[in-house]
Amino acid sequence: MSDNQPQQYPGYPPREPYGSGYGSPYGESYGNRNGNGQYGGDAYGHQDAYGTPPPADPAYLPSQHHQATLASEEPEARQHPQPARPAAPAPGPAPASTAHLAPNQRARLEGRSPIIPPGMQPAALTAVLAVLLGLSAQLPRPVLAVPVVLLQAVTAAGWFRLNGMWPARQGIALAFLAGLTTDVALLATERADAPVVAIGTLGVWCAFVLVLQLRNRSSADERMYALTAGLTSTALAVLASGQLAAAPDAVTVGAAAVAVATLARALRLPSFVSVAVALVAAAGAGIGAGELTGFGTPGAVLGLAAGGCALIGLRVASYDYPSRFVHMTAGVALPLALAAPAVYVLGRALG
């Protein structure tokens, strides 16, 4: 056979010389070159120009040993089929992070109550402070000023912490100084002038709080929040000084009612039962203290009002998922601080 004649295989049509049948001037297609340097089917099993697959290359045929191994393993695979793996569940939405939420919002999201009462220990401290107020009320007014000043200090610190603002030394100092200034002014004037003294002092110190917040470089929302907390804390400290302006017997009756109501509210009872028991106990304590001091049976009305104010103070101190520090400050002071206006007004009206 001449070198110029194309090599032919039995059973196959004669191959065209290179450069024909492929439509390419280079005589190539996109197939792969076989071991003899000739072009056959490509790697994806495409056919050649005649529509007939090229002969398989012996180099790529499986050996007899490999075929025998596959044949021996096939029955065993049929006898012991592999269990089908369950399809992996589709990934659900990732849970939203609660790190940026406030504690009370996180508690609501988790199904927990954001209201936590202070408990028995703060109630006991409230009762001790109330006893000090009730006993010192029968002594000269400067003696009564000592527990009142302590009440104002705890009120100012607890209110700022209850609002999540800590440390807030300047705001706490301003609120406490407002209460202290009111105490001094009340000791220097008559009891009948107490409303004018309290309003005047409150107006001056509110202006100081405004000036303090003008120097604040925080955002507008933070400055408004700090201003609100500062004004409220100042007002509470001034209201607590009402214990100095009230009649001595009224202070004793109101302090007894607050002490009993706070202890009764701390008992492990259902909520509505606990409130009812606390109010009844406050009225009873008012009657008892009224009989001892000469205030008389109107002490029941005063005791009921003071006990109601004490429960409001406890509710406020329980809000916003507070910490133990809040319970030991705001939870102790707010019942007595909120009861001071009722003690002053009803003491003058019923006494």
Automatic annotation (TrEMBL):
Residues 1-99 are annotated as: Disordered. Keywords: Membrane, Transmembrane, Transmembrane helix. Residues 1-10, 17-36 have a biased composition (Low complexity). Residues 83-94 have a biased composition (Pro residues). The chain crosses the membrane at residues 115-137, 143-160, 172-188, 194-212, 224-244, 272-289, 295-314, 326-346. This is Membrane protein. It comes from Streptomyces chattanoogensis.
